[in-house]
């Protein structure tokens, strides 16, 4: 599973970057997955960030 952020949903709260800073960054007003960290979908901090994203913009895809 790969983690991704849907920019059409993200409204830039930056919470993901605070909850899982090794995987998410905040750039240009959006949450982004750091390059090379797309495979971190099993990280509990990433799961929590996804659950608590207020826009439900963090997705897990095969
Ligand atoms: S927590 Fe959600 S809405 Fe906030 S920056 Fe991250 S992806 Fe965007």
TrEMBL record:
Keyword set, alphabetical order: 3Fe-4S, Electron transport, Iron, Iron-sulfur, Metal-binding, Transport
Cofactor: [3Fe-4S] cluster
GO function terms (MF aspect): 3 iron, 4 sulfur cluster binding; electron transfer activity; iron ion binding
Coiled coil ranges: none
Key word Electron transport present: yes
SUPFAM superfamilies: 4Fe-4S ferredoxins
Gene3D superfamilies linked: 3.30.70.20
Protein purpose: Ferredoxins are iron-sulfur proteins that transfer electrons in a wide variety of metabolic reactions.
Protein name, per record: Ferredoxin
